Amino acid sequence: MSRDREKGLRYMKDRPRKRVQSYSSPSTVLYYATSPPLSVTKTTPLSRLLETMVARGFRRVFVATANGLLEGIVTPMEIVKHLLWRSRDSPGMPVMSVMATPVATIMSKDVVGISQSESMLESIMLMKKNGVNSLAVVDKSNRLKAVLTVRDVLERFNYSLESGFVEDYMSKSPVCISIDRSLREGVEIMVSSGHRRLPCLQESKPVGLFSSRSIVRFLGGREFFKHAGKTLGELMSLSVIDFTVRDPPILDPRARITEAWEMIKRSSYGSALVVKTGSLEGFLTEMDFLKAVKIGS
């Protein structure tokens, strides 16, 4: 039995991750999607989920039955929301007790899926309509076959990005977080605003990126063990700076959108701070690039 199976983690059909191009048509979503996607069972504990998300760099993990029926999805935002709820309900709970929480308690059942035979243009419209950065690719029986991400779409359609500059597509008034705020305050802002990434500022100067993913990296990394003896309340009292990425990509607002994409796709962040003369001008994400993709004549 493999180490992954012992942890309740598995690749569908136990094959390496790859593009399924050998038997799928180039006109379908499945041709460009990544398969097999990583899935977990509903009984997988949070600690093992975090470990895998961090070690393998996954932004989302699907929840499926033993025969592949799709049941839910876990992203960093589901994890962050759960931490906030538990800290409000039981601030004295040991952090390690929370790590035993099963995925079933955390996952979202609201998964946006697409048929494996649909077109890429349909996937773009579905992502834009639902404001999601990934789609579960399923068969007629709702069995999980692959995952299609916004990055997959952009790598396929980057030649059709509109002409223009970063300032034409960026969020010009991004929700930010001050360096002197606590993790609890940062998470509350994140959850209430619906933004999973917040530029972190020291006064008016951008110093990094505070995100649901950076929180997950902390919880699933070595740094967490220094705080494993804390309660949830104590963990949530830590400074946001402990969970902030200090070296996110930086873009000039007058950079061309096509050049900006080349920079973003080389990074693992999927976003960039837009800065001019030391001041934050805006924020650019992969979803903003999706707005620049031409999908019609």
Descriptive notes:
With 297 residues, this protein is of the alpha/beta class. It is 35% helix and 22% strand. The protein has 14 helices and 16 strands. The strands form 5 sheets. The protein has a 4-stranded mixed sheet. It has a 4-stranded mixed sheet with strand order 10-11-12-13. Strand 4, helix 3 and strand 5 form a beta-alpha-beta unit. The radius of gyration is 20 Å and the shape is flat.
Number of helices: 14
Pattern of helices and strands: HEEHEEHEEHHHEHEEHHEHEEHHEEHEEH
The average pLDDT score comes to: 89
Q: How much of the sequence is in beta strands? A: 15-25%
Protein structure class: alpha/beta
Tell me, briefly, the overall form.
Answer: flat
CATH T-level topology of the largest domain: CBS-domain
Widest β-sheet, arrangement of strands = 1-4-5-6
Could you tell me how far the N terminus lies from the C terminus, measured between alpha carbons in angstroms? Answer: 52 Å
The count of β-strands is: 16
The CATH superfamily of the largest domain appears as: CBS-domain
Low-confidence stretches: 1-18
CATH class categorisation of the largest domain: Alpha Beta
Helix content: 25-40%
Radius of gyration: 20 Å
Biggest sheet statistics = 4 strands, mixed
The total domain count is 2
CATH architecture descriptor text of the largest domain: Roll
